[in-house]
Specification:
This protein has about 160 residues and is mostly helical. The protein contains 5 helices and 3 strands.
Amino acid sequence: MRDALLFGTQRAARTNGSGRCSAQLELVITARDTQGQDGDERLRGLALAERQLAALDGLGLDEDAMMVAFRTVSAFAHGASQSEVALREWTESAGWSSGDETRLGLAPQMTYPMTTGRYPTYRRYGLRATRKDEAAWAFETGLDCVLDGIAARLGI
């Protein structure tokens, strides 16, 4: 299955090799473009939920399964976004502007724990991982895992 993440339309679409969509999950990173008719925040949330649920409609899911899929993708997107923002704010507050600067700044605090042998997996990650600073790759890969799990579990 070929996966595509379409940020421009804020839609994550699962496609097979032919390009036909086998399941769609509307992804909302920001809801600024989705407003209720009178600008009411409650209507904004309702309009957003409607768009996301409509992307799942017609895939053979009952309403409960549609809501589970919608909430799972939303939770992942919101959590990943919040985590990235928090990390960026923390590194900037420390005066670091890159992952390399962050690791260099933390090296004095991390050297001893990494040599105790109590954290072998984390140490291996720190030494061998090649995509530590690729937030977009981590998001897309995580989203692929979430969507693959939803598709497998719900049969879509």
